[in-house]
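[#protein-structures] MJ: dropping Alpha/beta-hydrolase here for a structure pass
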Amino acid sequence: MYLLGALSLLAAVQAVVVPAIGPEGHTHSTLSADAAPQGKNVTINGVLTYVSLPRERFDPSIAVVMLTDVFGLPSPDNLLLADQWADAGFATFAPDYLNGDALPSDGLANITAWSVNHGEAQTTPPLLAVISSLKERGIKQIAVTGYCFGGLYTIRLVQNNTITVGTTAHPSSLSVPDDIDLIKAVSHVAIEINNAELDTGFTPALALVTDGVLGDGQYPPGYERRQFDGVGHGFAVRANASDPVQVAAKQGAFDTSLAFIKAHLK
Ligand SMILES: *[C@@H]1O[C@H](CO)[C@@H](O)[C@H](O)[C@H]1NC(C)=O
Ligand SMILES: *[C@@H]1O[C@H](CO)[C@@H](O)[C@H](O)[C@H]1NC(C)=O
Ligand SMILES: *[C@@H]1O[C@H](CO)[C@@H](O)[C@H](O)[C@H]1NC(C)=O
Ligand SMILES: *[C@@H]1O[C@H](CO)[C@@H](O)[C@H](O)[C@H]1NC(C)=O
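AK: finished. structure tokens for Alpha/beta-hydrolase:
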């Protein structure tokens, strides 16, 4: 009887594929045009990669791989975010897994048309090329931090046990709860999620479904989720400098992911 009840309850939960959000749905940045990234573009295993190294001494056996949103390496916000990871003490690598075809952030792009050439088949090979090269170069532990579009790939790397720890903010394109169930079934990699109250993709309701699978100690490798109120999709990458709520949320997401990563590196 119990089993039947549980099965019919499960059947009632429809899997939702979190939609990709176009430029108009992202938090708008007020970054000044003269903001100067401190890192360099390097080709790693054939893939353009933005590399930002800490100014202080750092552990070369650890790397942060940052998976950008759809605006990729042409977006200064993404490069400065990679620099922030470097300033926190990690050699940081942001691969161009958009294959030189980032969406313009001017709000005129058609994300549906763009997505046709940016599925897993096109996106995964450059990503794995960089990760395998880092491992060949002696990097023993990789922390992945993925934003929006990068959320799905963070989840995949967690499911595939390719990395040491994963964090994501306002992830898109994953299937909830299916991809979360798969994490629980096959992964031993800890995962942290920052979500936005006003995100129309990975909504607070989907965040609660995720908690239902991984929360309350149900996922021994480690799970944490933090919701930021009053902000929307993209808040962990961009903020309006004159909006203190956005500024605090962006920093809060970074600090939460950083603490989680530090706690789960060996
Ligand atoms: C790195 O490459 C991207 C994409 O081509 C470009 O927009 C960016 O300005 C470059 N950054 C640096 C620091 O060279
Ligand atoms: C966006 O692209 C899709 C797929 O190519 C197309 O069906 C749709 O009409 C386009 N939307 C706009 C507003 O151009
Ligand atoms: C994860 O593993 C699946 C199944 O082998 C594979 O199809 C996919 O490309 C992998 N993705 C990543 C990001 O490693
Ligand atoms: C930033 O916020 C200010 C004050 O609310 C607003 O006037 C401005 O248009 C915003 N800028 C952007 C780029 O959204």
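MJ: nice. Residues 110, 112-113 surround 2-acetamido-2-deoxy-beta-D-glucopyranose (ligand 2) (CB under 6 Å).
AK: one more thing. The first strand starts at residue 16 and ends at 17.
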